[in-house]
Predict the 3D structure of the following.
Amino acid sequence: MLRHELQPGKLVAGAVLTLVGVLYAGDAGGAWQTPWFVAIPLVAGGLCLAGVVGILTGRIRRRRTSGRTTSDEPGPDMAG
């Protein structure tokens, strides 16, 4: 049993922000040079991608649950 449902949008956002953190940690540690302006497009693009993934996930889940009924009464297509 899962403790909570998977939210791919938050997963994408967390992965992108972790990547930006690793880039700047490597820069601070002297492993490589990262220009200051690299974070802006990465964070903005990652958040936009996370938003799109979240919207798509919501639509897919809504479509899956709208086809299921919880009552035992026959629906409009099962009348008779």
In short: The mean pLDDT is 88. Residues 10-17+27-53 form one domain.
